[in-house]
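[job 4471] stage=fold_predict status=RUNNING
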Amino acid sequence: MFKVQSLDEAVHRRFVRDTPNFKGTRVPLMGGEDEPGLAPQAYLIEQAPHWVLQPHFHRQYQFQLISAGSGQLGRNDVGPLLVHYASPESGYGPITAGPKGLSYYTLRAVYEEGAHYLPESRELLRAGLKKHHAVSPRIEPGAADALRARTQLVVEETIPCTAEGMAVWTLRIPPDARFTPATLSGEGARYLYVAAGEMVANGKALPAGSVAFVHDEPGLVISASAAGLDLLILQFPCEATTRQGPAIEAAAGA
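[job 4471] inference complete, writing structure tokens
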């Protein structure tokens, strides 16, 4: 499976969420209620200034990628570009938006809607389930001139590959150069995020802010355009593409 979506083409789907649990907007990128099950799910959250999203958990593996604004995840300051990973039922938060709000992509290999808030949903947590969080250092995308002047491919291990297969890489790709994601370690489903420049995949040019989902596509080749490319690759554990037990009703939220 290989699916792509540029943010520019999705912003017309932005809608407001104003509930007791969340205040802000959401931009759907991939997945929806008509695509349950193993369909990948990606959306951009734009959390209102100073709004506090209370601690919660999800039943699926998840990456969050901070794209704009400032704030805190728990007690830690966050901002662009920082990646947060959480395994199923790993509670995290609160997420506190700064004075100009906080924007972040939510990326899952398997569709799930809603959140389970803590502490009131604590009894829903399965005993003995291994929990795993990881937070990357801030990733600095290259300026336009630096991208165009690049001559060598650089692969940075942003979050080292774990025993379960989760990993994050930052790729600095020269203009018009090609790259095969399958050459990286691991076989889990992946999201590709265009941090700067432009990616070309299957003949489609994708600007900064675009996302792609890749699963079981060993022959996939991506290219940088003449603008160069800074690309994040976020890899799930292989088991992320299987369901995580019986569904439980979730409250509406981020």
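[job 4471] summary: The radius of gyration is 18 Å.
[job 4471] exit 0
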